[in-house]
Amino acid sequence: MPSRFHPVAACALAAGIEVLLATATARGAERLSIDCLVDDLVTVADDTLAEAQQSAARIFEPVAVQIVWFDTTSALRRQKAFDDLGAQKAFVTSLYVVRLVATDGYGGMTPSERSLGSAAVGTRVAIIPYPRVLELARNGSGTVGLVLGHVIAHELGHLLLQRATHSAAGLMRSTLDLRLAQQGRLLFTAPEGRAIRAAIARNAARR
What we know:
This protein is of the alpha/beta class and 207 residues long. It has a single domain, classed as 3-Layer(aba) Sandwich (Collagenase (Catalytic Domain)). It has eight helices and five strands; from the N terminus they run αβαβααβββαααα. A five-stranded mixed beta sheet has the order 2-1-3-5-4. The longest helix is centred in the N-terminal third of the chain and has 18 residues, at 9-26. It is globular.
């Protein structure tokens, strides 16, 4: 998810239309949820992480998807709360893991030179090199929490959609526009919202 972008009016208009369609599609739909473990290996400040989670949750709200957040401690506590090993395993395998790291190439996953994150399509794991998030926030006009929240939502989008490619409009573009992010206009398009909900429903049926 590169950070460099030059806004184009036509793209912004298309994104706005798609967002309205996505919101209309999800209105009245059954509320679905995903479990997301934020594996923080860089010790992000609590208020920054809280802002990031709120920002990511807001992005999923128009498609009627709720994110249930875990850290490593709460995830382990939740796992142990289940009575049998099968339920414990089901919980662990249901987790989407977003790992915040201090260096590139963690665990063999190497984002491109200007990418803010990398999702291993076919798995439920994404990594975010946190220094790149800090750099963009400092050089731009957004808070670290706002940037991090959008990157988390973007990488979760890759994992849920099970694709590495990007869209022409909305959150899943290859670039992060801080101006649009601050305005709350970087959301999933209507087709992406439907695909995400379908993926969540399929995953729930397998558990």
